[in-house]
Amino acid sequence: MDGTTFWLAVALVLVIEGFMPFMSPATWRQTMVQILKLGDGQLRFFGLCSLLLGVALIWWLA
């Protein structure tokens, strides 16, 4: 992986992260409020699931 691939990956993350607040800011805000209400254990569980899914996708695609 060279530097260009890394920056393309970062750019793709920014595009994906910016899509929801751009298209529907009210829904995005409501979602963030609901996320803030989750407990630490719930957030850690979703974080772990995201990490595992990301690692599995990288392993499968690489």
Secondary-structure topology with pairs:
Elements: H1 3-23, H2 25-36, H3 40-61
Could you explain how this protein is built, in words?
The chain has 62 residues and is mostly helical. The protein has a domain at 25-62. Helix content is 89%, strand content 0%. The chain has 3 helices and no strands. Helix 1 (3-23) crosses helix 2 (25-36). It is flat. 0% of the residues are buried.
Provide a count of the helices.
3
| Quaternary status | single chain
Radius of gyration, whole Å: 15 Å
Specify the biggest β-sheet: none
Uncertain runs with pLDDT below 50, 5 residues or more?
Answer: none
> Would you list the SSEs in sequence order as H and E?
HHH
Distance between the termini: 10 Å
Helicity level, as a percent range?
Answer: over 70%
Form type? flat
| Percentage of β-strand residues | under 5%
**Number of DSSP strands?**
0
Mean pLDDT metric: 93
Question: Helices and strands: which structural class?
Answer: mainly alpha
Features:
single chain; 62 residues; mainly alpha; 3 helices; 89% helix
Summarize the structure in short.
With 62 residues, this protein is mostly helical. The chain is 89% helix and 0% strand.
